[in-house]
Amino acid sequence: MPRRKNIKMQKPKIKEVKEKNASILFSRLKGMKDILFDEYKYWDLVIKKATELARAYGFRRIETPVLENTKLYERSTGKGSDIVTKEMYTFIDKNGEKISLRPEATPSLVRAYIEHGMFNLPQPVKMFWLGPIFRHDKPQAGRYRQATQFDLEIFGEEAPVADVLLILLAYNFFCELQVNVQIQINSIGCEECRKEYLVKLLEFYKERGRRSKLCGDCKKRIVKNPLRLLDCKEEKCLEAREEAPQIVDYLCDSCREHFIKVLEYLDELDINYNLNPYLVRGLDYYNRTVFEIWAIEEEGGAQGKLALGGGGRYDGLVKYMGGRPTPACGFAVGIERTITKIREKNIPLKSEEGDLIFLAQLGEQARRKAFAIFEELRRAGFKVRQAFTKDSLKVQLEEANRIGAKFSLILGQKEVMDGTILFRDMDSGIQEIVNQKRIKEDIEKKLNLNKGK
Ligand code: AMP
User: Which fold, 357-447?
Assistant: First the structure.
């Protein structure tokens, strides 16, 4: 009797566990994104363009780990920056080390430049980097917690031509992807010229009770990093900054000369830019040229709600991080935002795949033979596709149409016996019988004929 009782008691327990498991539905984390099949063609396009341009301008690919010591970012990005104070994914690993998921690429690249003694290489060293960054920011349109950037850096070149090369590359990247952009540019000078400017800026905010009208964040910034008062997007801060002194009026001779040269180059290259006195960028390490890339909205004016990319010069950072004094500059472009812009324009994408050939089969014997033919054609370099899991010829030809195949090769029982194969032109529907032995020559001939049309 007690045995029976036990069994009765266990049953509902198991059921309950089963039901619980069945009800768990995992979803991706907030602010994270899956890239599904249809979107991938845009990724291919954008990454191909970035890679092609980086190579054309002499940048070499580099990859760095996703995790770095937290101190790297505290020292470079800056302890007072929004990224470090609010947005980093930081945790203690199993060895008790405080590490962070990278929130931007530049600090790792500076670390790599120093760690691998790249000052021994011929200068400048031009790096191309592509990968995910992580920022625990408030998710919204165009702002993810995992985003992908392509990033270019030039180490060991002080001349304005380096700044211009980066801006030109960024500009060409967007133009060639048919995204209309305007470059927003400013110079925030060096430490010396900024000193006098910051005194004037603080005086300005003290006048007419402007300081008391600032948002909570800016009330802190005015003490810690007053330059950042200029790029706050809060309405009341925008009002308060009207008629604020402009840093370009306070540049020292060498910073002014540097900036003028950058602008002269941009004029000559016919790059659409806007001198934006409020552009300062949020990070501690920038000096002299800073720039952002803004999409031009359809009405015709640049609206800087979300930048597509940005960067600037950071001549003091390599030394500050323990390296030799090395002038440098760089920029990063957001891949997700770029893709959103391309998709908004509804530009049809050309298939990069070239002429596809579809191999269809009917019946078990034909399927076996088709495997061998498929491998032979693929190894010979033809772009051949198949649907070997399907039995129906109709379904297979529908698939051939869906992928835009130029020709289908159809192999049935009869063809296996005869050593032939049917060659079907997918546009006209005309079919002809071809000898299996001559299949490669015949495909070649037909593709060439087709090109001539
Ligand atoms: P930043 O380093 O913040 O200047 O970022 C450079 C570019 O990366 C931006 O202009 C965006 O295109 C992109 N980006 C930065 N943060 C995010 C994010 N949280 N989500 C999506 N894209 C981002």
Answer: Rossmann fold (3.40.50)
